[in-house]
Write a structure and sequence with these properties.
This protein is 70% helix and 3% strand. By secondary structure, the protein is mainly alpha-helical. α4 crosses α5, α4 runs antiparallel to α8 and α5 packs antiparallel against α6.
Length: 147
């Protein structure tokens, strides 16, 4: 699960096209601020596909956040981070900062932008719908484990 922090989706921004870069910044920067404020994890952000090394202190802070979770929450978080490509989104969902629909939508900014520009791919949409349902189930599992 912690490996997602090293390559977290919300830390990788487009530099082109400008409208996509703006969407990412508007939607993801507040999540990084949340992670820094609530967990002490100030993650680095970069553009393009080149690896962005994360500060050791940020990774250690996220390690502590994950270590506080019970086995049920860890199982749910693994699914959440896997689907979204983001430990930050997974933690935000697990901690009630986001709901499943919001987390999924935030994880799909790039794909949704491409679909708006070039049109929807029916096969990709079927896959996305399945992933959204799986994320809903993980969130419901986590909620049920806390009751």
């Amino acid at each position: 699960i912690l490996c997602f922090a090293e390559y977290d989706l919300v830390c990788y921004r487009a530099d082109q096209p400008p409208e996509l870069a703006k969407l990412q910044d508007q939607n993801w920067s507040s999540l990084l601020d949340w992670a820094a404020q609530n967990h002490g994890a100030k993650l680095a952000v970069g553009t393009g596909l080149t690896h962005v090394p994360q500060p050791a202190a940020a990774l250690a802070a996220l390690r502590l956040a994950v270590a506080r979770l019970d086995d049920f929450a860890l199982a749910a978080l693994h699914v959440m981070a896997s689907i979204t490509g983001s430990l930050v989104l997974g933690l935000a969902l697990a901690e009630g900062r986001l709901n499943a629909a919001q987390a999924f939508q935030l994880s799909r900014i790039d794909e949704d932008h491409q679909a708006q520009k070039w049109g929807q791919d029916a096969e990709a949409q079927v896959r996305a719908n399945g992933l959204a349902r799986e994320l809903d189930v993980a969130a419901a599992f986590l909620a049920a484990s806390r009751d």
